[in-house]
Amino acid sequence: MEAPAAPRDAVDPSGPSKPSETPASVPDGVTVELTVDSPERMKELGRRLAGLLRAGDLVMLTGELGAGKTTLTRGLGEGLGVRGAVTSPTFVIARVHPSLGEGPPLVHVDAYRLGGGLDEMEDLDLDVSLSDSVIVVEWGEGKVEELTDDRLHVLIHRAVGDTTDELRRVELRGVGERWEAVELGRLAG
């Protein structure tokens, strides 16, 4: 399914000998890199990642348009056992998917159209939902970090331009104490 974790200076599949890019706003933490070669495998990664999540977790998704952020979130929804089809919340900004069982609900946010930082996000009351839910924010970098010191930042890198390449390099960065003990490396197998 996914290739074993790559070294931190792995080559980006989108170009020749381009070192992986690390956003300055993401502090060092637990990092695992995977290679995903199809949308179904991206969804499967989401299902497996759901097994590591619990109420109170914030997951930030970063990647180009079409990188697979919503596909990964669909897998998270399946893995968490939530109600409703997980689709992009671009035009509604946020959707809540209640749990069908004992697990936490999934709050799926698309912050693409939100310009400001946490000020604009405050209207969504994510801080109220955080302790009871798993919150996934697409395009959240620079907007939701202040919600919690502990978060999982998922960066999805894909080839850009006119390409049909399905290959994605996925970097999972656990930030904060919560993620120090989580074995993100289990997702590589």
Task: Describe the fold and architecture.
The protein is α/β, with parallel strands linked by helices. The chain has 5 helices and 7 strands, in the order E-H-E-H-E-E-H-H-E-E-E-H. The chain has helices spanning 39-50, 69-80, 118-121, 126-130, 177-180; strands at 30-36, 58-63, 94-97, 106-110, 134-138, 151-158, 168-175. A 7-stranded mixed β-sheet has the order 1-7-6-2-5-4-3. The radius of gyration is 15 Å and the shape is globular. The model is unreliable at 1-27 (pLDDT under 50).
| Radius of gyration, taken over Cα atoms and rounded to an integer in Å | 15 Å
Q: Approximately how much helix is present in the residues? A: 10-25%
Oligomer: single chain
Q: Average pLDDT, to the nearest integer? A: 79
- End-to-end gap: 8 Å
Low-confidence runs (pLDDT<50, min 5 residues)?
1-27
| Strand fraction | 15-25%
SS-based class:
alpha/beta
Helices and strands, in N-to-C order? EHEHEEHHEEEH
* Most strands sheet: 7 strands, mixed
Strand order of the largest sheet: 1-7-6-2-5-4-3
Work out the helix count: 5
The rough form would be described as globular
Count of extended strands: 7
